[in-house]
Amino acid sequence: MGGRPxxxxxxxxxxxxxxxxxxxxxxxxxxxxxxxxxxxKLTYAGRLENLHDVRGLGGFRFVRGDVCDEGLLERxxxxxxxxxxxxxxxxxxxxxxxxxxxxxxxxxxxxVFTLLEVLRRLGGDTVYLHVSTDEVYGDLWGVxxxxxxxxxxxxxxxxxxxxxxADLLVRAYGRTYGIRYRIARPCNNYGxxxxxxxxIPRTIVRLLLGRPAxxxxxxxxVRDWLYVxxxxxxxxxxxxxxxxxxVYNICxxxxxxxxxxxxxxxxxxxxxxxRDIVYVEGRPGEDRRYAxxxxxxxxxxxxxxxxxxxxxxxxxxxxxxNRWWWEPLVDERYVLAEKPWRxxxxx
Length: 347
Ligand SMILES: NC(=O)c1ccc[n+]([C@@H]2O[C@H](COP(=O)([O-])OP(=O)(O)OC[C@H]3O[C@@H](n4cnc5c(N)ncnc54)[C@H](O)[C@@H]3O)[C@@H](O)[C@H]2O)c1
Hints:
Blueprint: E1 7-11, H1 16-29, E2 35-40, E3 60-64, H2 70-80, E4 84-87, H3 94-99, H4 102-122, E5 127-131, H5 158-177, E6 180-186, E7 188-190, H6 199-208, E8 213-216, E9 222-227, H7 228-241, E10 246-250, E11 255-257, H8 258-268, E12 277-280, H9 295-298, H10 308-321, H11 323-326, H12 332-336
Parallel strand pairs: 1-2, 1-4, 2-3, 4-5, 5-6, 6-10, 7-9, 8-12
Antiparallel strand pairs: 9-11
The structure holds nicotinamide-adenine-dinucleotide.
């Protein structure tokens, strides 16, 4: 597809990465000549507060709906006639997927199937940008090298298994029905508007509340950390210059262990890592290392711009200055609890 699409249907656009993408499209990349319709169920993770500064803009529309609601989705696609559909809608917290996998299978697998069926019937030439994850490649601990886009899918958690299942469905719909998909697989994202159940905001919020930061296990898990402002530019590059039926890894090659990231935040916030971090039992089956090759997306002219140090600083500043945004999201189980919460306290 040449150029950027004029009408974007952003499914799950009220969550963390989705809302940052919508802001990028409406305010920066396509200011004035793009229409965005956000379709979102507004689960615990999706909030209109995430879009508070763009909701009044001319090109913005919102429909509350479930990605599994075929009838409503069909009406929205039929009326809006999007040039591209970008799908962020998912259950996303690995800890929750261990405690209660069913919503992950429903939204992340059945939801994608529903969307593909609607596009098969009504999509015409619509491009489908499917948001996947580096977690579909599974644990690369002890494995030489980094996963490229043809690396086998080897998921470990109910979350990553649901995401890998969706990727397979998307590819099958491309091959069988000609759906013009592009799959994006970003690494660990962080930045403004991320729910405080996730590691980086949880650490910042806990410290702001005067509690110690927590690390699950020994903190030796290696992740590649990408600032969300960089990720959304990558999605824009894939929409503008990407190829149909292609998969793109999106990464920063800014590898750091969970321990070193938490320690960096503790120091940035003027605390002492030897006093203000507690180590608690890890979660079952946790992957030790993710690592991807990202030459393909570099070929679209995209590079990350924000270093981990700058990104962490900006994120700490944002959470410090936006208590109104995160205070209603602080819960006992996934933010305040010192160890991973399990129903009945089991493993
Ligand atoms: N955050 C990361 O580090 C990361 C990394 C790689 C990939 N991803 C992928 O990026 C996408 C977005 O992640 P995020 O961190 O922004 O997630 P998030 O949890 O912050 O947001 C998910 C959004 O989807 C919506 N949603 C959930 N179920 C829905 C349903 N049934 N129907 C309609 N909307 C529904 C929620 O209301 C919310 O707005 C996901 O597909 C995730 O797998 C995230």
